[in-house]
């Protein structure tokens, strides 16, 4: 019988170290990100993610340890850094229930990227909510576009087009010429013709034009 195929490639040659915080004595699945091992509870991954639900449903060949059952046979998370995985795990294992471990845009962006990649819908919604509340609007636009989250993308555009301050030079550089021109045009129209309120028809038309370009 052939070796069981997983959604993630195994990497036996990479040196491994146990993560100082997220190698839990009572964990029951072991992941490897880069050269770091994480031992956590598969419950969170089985219940929260269709990707992991499908992966855990694959049977192990008779006589072989199941993938993720030991340090010698972890589930290797290809393309995932140990830092990003540690940030993601803080959602399930916060140090306290009163204050999130993560505070910066970069930290929540790490969580969002893995939530989208692994189809954790609840974690994705949490990350979007935190980023919508705290991240700069330009970051929100870039993240929403990168992860193809149209509702968030539109909401961020509404807010940046209706704010009092125009785009800064740095914001314009990050967004690019086309996006800067579109946002500036919608903002000027709002000020001149719509009493500062966003014209949603004009904004939607402008965003469709951006997508076509």
Automatic annotation (TrEMBL):
Its protein name is: BTB domain-containing protein
Tell me which stretches of the chain form a coiled coil: none
Read off the CDD domains from this record: BTB_POZ_ZBTB_KLHL-like
Q: Where is the BTB domain?
A: 27-101
Q: What Pfam families would the database entry show?
A: BTB (PF00651)
**Originating species:** Rhodofomes roseus
């Amino acid at each position: 019988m052939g070796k069981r195929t997983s959604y993630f490639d195994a990497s036996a040659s990479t040196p491994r170290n146990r993560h100082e915080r997220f190698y839990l004595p009572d964990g029951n699945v072991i992941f490897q990100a880069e050269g770091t091992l994480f031992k956590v509870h598969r419950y969170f991954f089985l219940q929260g993610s269709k990707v992991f639900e499908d992966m855990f449903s694959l049977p192990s060949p008779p006589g072989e340890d199941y993938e993720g059952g030991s340090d010698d046979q972890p589930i290797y998370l290809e393309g995932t850094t140990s830092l990003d995985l540690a940030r993601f795990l803080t959602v399930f294992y916060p140090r306290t229930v009163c204050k999130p471990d993560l505070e910066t845009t970069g930290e929540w962006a790490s969580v969002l990227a893995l939530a989208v990649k692994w189809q954790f819908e609840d974690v994705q919604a949490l990350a979007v909510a935190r980023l919508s509340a705290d991240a700069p609007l330009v970051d929100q636009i870039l993240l929403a576009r990168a992860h193809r989250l149209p509702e968030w993308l539109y909401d961020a555009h509404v807010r940046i087009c209706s704010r009092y301050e125009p785009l800064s030079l740095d914001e314009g550089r990050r967004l690019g010429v086309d996006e800067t021109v579109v946002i500036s045009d919608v903002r000027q129209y709002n000020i001149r013709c719509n009493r500062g309120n966003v014209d949603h028809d004009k904004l939607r038309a402008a965003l469709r034009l951006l997508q076509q370009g």
